Amino acid sequence: MLFSELALHERLQRAITTAGYTDTTPIQAATLPLGLKGKDIVGTAQTGTGKTAAFVLPILQRLLDTPPTGRTRAVIVTPTRELAEQINDSIKMLGQHTNIQSATVYGGVGMFPQERALRRGVDIIIACPGRLLDHMQRGNCNLSQVEVLVLDEADRMLDMGFLPPIRQILSAMPKERQTMLFSATFAPELNRLVAEHLSQPHRIEMGFAAPAETVEHALYPVQEHLKVPLLLSLLNDTETKSVLIFTRTKHRANRVTEKLERAGHNAVVLHSNKSQAQRQQALDGFKRGKYDVLVATDIAARGIDVATISHVINFDIPDCADTYIHRIGRTGRATHNGEAFTLVTTADYGDIRDIERKLGARLETRTLAGFDYAQQGPSRTELDDRPERPQQGGRKQSARSSSPYRANQANRPAAPQEASAPVSPRQQYNTAPPAAPRQHAPAPAAPRQYNAAPAPAAGRPFNAGPKAAPARPQSAKPRQGPSRPDPMNFDPNYKPRNRKPGSRPARRG
Predict the structure, then answer these.
(1) What is the DSSP letter of 23?
(2) Separation between Cα atoms, residue 60 and residue 68, nearest integer Å
(3) SS (H, E, C) 283-298
């Protein structure tokens, strides 16, 4: 089906022509006619098949056909900030010849700019559930006149625990509305949500959830310590445009990025520990071609729509088959060809079987020509290349290593055929002195008589009290100082001056 065959507004047709779109994708051809009629839709399709335009165009068409009300008329709920910005970019592109206003609402940034935009009034809100609920509780937005609601990547929002906020958001909207729910996979928990909040929805399922047919898969078996060298060899020997590399943890993403930068690649990292400004800067730079390689965690498995991504490399295998589908869906988008490489170890074969069972096909196994798979490496992963701790001087002694038994063992003389190792000053300090020979207890002293003078000692005993002051010579002049009144000679008739009865003396100073 062609976009020109749809009953779209002339302004929207001009924007579609400017964007270079002519043919609709299967999900768009099945969804757009129903969405333009105001029907509720539940759409499940392969990732990267154009679901965003499938619900953005019906929203823009509805807002153009009806007069504005000055309040929010459409709400799109997404799980991540990146996906919210991507949808907002699509709205701006397809609605560039209209006066429709949109705003993104998500956490990680200040609330004042969002509050100002919501109070000024926008037609479409693209929001993450948690931050949208915060604005609702503060009275910054009114959803009582919402006409269209879209739940995008609904299964992902359920996995992230957004179901309670979504229910509160739905309760603040009128029941008479158009609701469209889209997802790459349809979890069983969504059936109850659909039954409660959608009115006779049309179910559209474009095959099973799998990557597009334009993606070519390959597995590269490798030992754990050879992952980084193999990754660098793949990037050097493969003709690529933009490469997206997925890691399992944020720490590994940082380490892989450092290795790539040292090798001369223009790489940038993206994960949840980065601020929103850093994440947006990295994503914009990757889209514009400023960076050739983007290393990210699964936060980038959804919400990144870059047509120039030619390769997706799984440095770490994902935790489940659905995550693999979402990762691979970042390439081969919009009828473009792409390749997906996965570095696997012997511990990953169980996950590979689950992925192959989900895809219904066996993945191809490859080896890189010219790569030395027999090179030796450390027992732990090469990413953890922290310097070893010094064995002498700077190492902290534990309680066990500083015990007297170990100290005595260390003080034993070495064998005649071996030279004794030098001992650091810290080890000498921590070494316990040799124990003195045990002596018999001294005989008990005779009991001291009451008020008897102490026996003269030959020398000053240890831990004795302070030395007594020497006797002052008789010829020394006595110390002069202010005399104190004798308490025994107190005058009972003494009265203080300038003091009234019952008053307190004046405070001095």
Answers:
(1) B
(2) 12
(3) HHHHHHCCCCEEEECH
DSSP secondary structure of 161-220: T-HHHHHHHHHTS-SSSEEEEEESS--TTHHHHHHHH-SSPEEEE-SSS---TTEEEEEE
- How much is the pTM? 0.59
For the chain, helix (H) and strand (E) counts, in that order, are: 16, 13
Query: Can you give the pLDDT of all 509 residues of the chain as single tens digits?
Result: 888 889 899 999 999 999 888 888 888 999 999 999 999 999 887 666 788 899 999 999 999 988 887 889 999 999 888 889 989 999 999 999 999 999 999 988 888 999 999 988 899 999 999 999 999 999 999 899 999 999 998 887 887 788 889 999 999 999 999 999 987 767 677 888 888 889 899 998 875 555 556 788 999 999 999 999 999 999 999 888 889 999 999 999 999 999 999 999 999 998 888 887 788 888 888 988 899 999 998 877 765 767 778 899 999 998 888 788 888 877 866 556 788 999 999 999 889 999 898 888 889 999 999 899 887 655 444 444 444 444 444 444 444 444 444 444 445 554 444 444 454 544 544 555 555 556 555 555 555 555 555 555 555 555 555 555 555 555 555 555 555 555 555 566 656 565 555 556 555 54
Contact 325, 211 (CB under 8 A): yes
Q: Sign of the C-alpha dihedral, residues 496, 498, 502, 506?
A: negative
CA distance 107 to 53: 25
- With vertex at residue 299, the alpha carbon angle to CA 256 and CA 289, rounded to the nearest 5 degrees, is 65
Residue whose C-alpha is closest to residue 383's, from 223, 222, 227: 227
In whole angstroms, give the CA distance from residue 411 to residue 405: 10
Structure tokens at 28: 């768009």
Cα 448 from Cα 294, distance rounded (Å): 89
Closest CA to 150 of 110, 91, 234: 91
Helices 321-328, 349-359: inter-axial angle, 10-degree rounding:
70
